[in-house]
Design brief:
Distance between the termini of chain B: 37 Å
Mean pLDDT of chain B: 89
Largest sheet of chain A: 5 strands, antiparallel
Strand content of chain A: 25-35%
Low-confidence stretches of chain A: none
CATH superfamily of chain B: HprK N-terminal domain-like
CATH superfamily of chain A: Histidine kinase-like ATPase, C-terminal domain
CATH topology of chain B: Udp-n-acetylmuramoylalanyl-d-glutamate--2,6- Diaminopimelate Ligase, Chain: A, domain 1
Shape of chain A: globular
Number of helices of chain A: 5
Largest interface: A-B, 32 and 26 residues
Number of strands of chain A: 5
Strand order of the largest sheet of chain A: 1-2-3-5-4
Oligomer: heterodimer
CATH class of chain A: Alpha Beta
Helix content of chain A: 25-40%
Distance between the termini of chain A: 20 Å
CATH architecture of chain A: 2-Layer Sandwich
Order of helices and strands of chain B: EHEEEHEHEHEHE
Shape of chain B: globular
CATH topology of chain A: Heat Shock Protein 90
CATH class of chain B: Alpha Beta
Structural class of chain B: alpha/beta
Number of strands of chain B: 8
Number of helices of chain B: 5
Number of domains of chain A: 1
CATH architecture of chain B: 3-Layer(aba) Sandwich
Helix content of chain B: 25-40%
Structural class of chain A: alpha+beta
Low-confidence stretches of chain B: none
Strand content of chain B: 15-25%
Largest sheet of chain B: 6 strands, mixed
Strand order of the largest sheet of chain B: 2-7-6-5-4-8
Radius of gyration of chain B: 15 Å
């Protein structure tokens, strides 16, 4: 396996708990930063969607967390981490249509059980680690230079 | 056979009022998607320039529009976004329109003019042999 390319860009976004009005705003910032860095349009769009889904998950289920954006010549990565209840059954959470979203999130048009399946589809690699009553960490990787 | 419609044509065909995006009236809408469930929009739309027909006034509609590079938001049944949403849309260059038509009538009017629906295409994970 070839060594990873040196990082070109690193940015940390802090997500405060209960900030519903702002939920989803980091993904716009991520999109603008990726465009400014000259990242391929397809990756800009996919990373924006994954960021949005991850951000909404943190807003819906956790007590706050952070998103780290990493950009290198060969890849873009998004790292989501939160403090919260954790995911009891990750395989179940990967099932399209399965959701434990609160009512307020459903009223906003979320909670259809497509968040994690959509994150998996849109990224080239998605890793989920979760600890009950601890929190969840998700790493999404997008490979650059695939045409 | 599908066709592209200018945003100004969309406004004319649905008798819609333009609330933001006066500079985008000549912008070509490639496809349309009609949904209130934003999760579905995020899963379905893969091209830039898609028109979202919706009855949802959640602030996240605008963020979804930004992330997906939507060509415009058309609110149905006379649902008017707040002035704060309009201001955000102007700053983010997301055109906003509002029509008194229902979602069914709106979609029918645009479909009859040849505007096609957004379709989910293939994702990287759909190519299992290419996961090098």
């Amino acid at each position: 396996m070839p060594p990873k390319e040196k990082l070109l860009h690193r940015r940390v976004f802090i997500l405060l708990p209960g900030n519903l009005e702002q939920a989803g705003s980091v993904s716009g910032d991520v999109r603008r930063e990726l465009v400014a860095l000259g990242v391929e349009q397809d990756i800009v769009r996919r990373a924006g969607v994954v960021c949005f889904e991850g951000e909404m998950n943190i807003a819906m289920y956790s007590e706050g967390g952070r998103i780290i954006l990493l950009v290198a010549d060969d890849r873009v990565e998004l790292l989501f981490s939160d403090r919260g209840p954790g995911i009891p059954d990750i395989e179940l959470a990967r099932t399209p249509g399965y959701s434990t979203a609160p009512d307020w999130a459903r009223e906003l048009g979320f909670g259809a059980g497509m968040g994690i399946p959509n994150m998996e589809h849109q990224s080239d690699r998605l890793e989920i680690r979760s600890r009950l009553e601890g929190g969840t960490v998700i790493r999404a990787v997008f490979r650059r230079g695939r045409g | 056979m599908t066709t592209k419609l200018k945003l100004g044509d969309v406004a004319r065909l649905t008798n819609a009022e333009l609330l933001a995006g006066e500079e985008a009236l000549d912008f070509e809408i490639t496809q349309a998607c009609a949904a209130d469930l934003l999760s579905d929009v995020l899963a379905l739309v893969q091209d830039e320039g898609v028109l979202l027909v919706t009855g949802s006034l959640a602030p996240q509609v605008l963020r979804v529009a930004e992330v997906l590079g939507l060509g415009g938001l058309l609110f149905v049944r006379g649902k008017r976004p707040t002035e704060a949403m309009c201001a955000y849309a102007r700053q983010a260059s997301v055109p906003l329109l509002v029509t008194e038509l229902s979602m069914f009538e709106t979609c029918g009017a645009l479909y009859c003019e040849g505007l096609g629906g957004a379709r989910r295409k293939r994702f990287p994970k759909d190519y299992p042999d290419d996961a090098s």
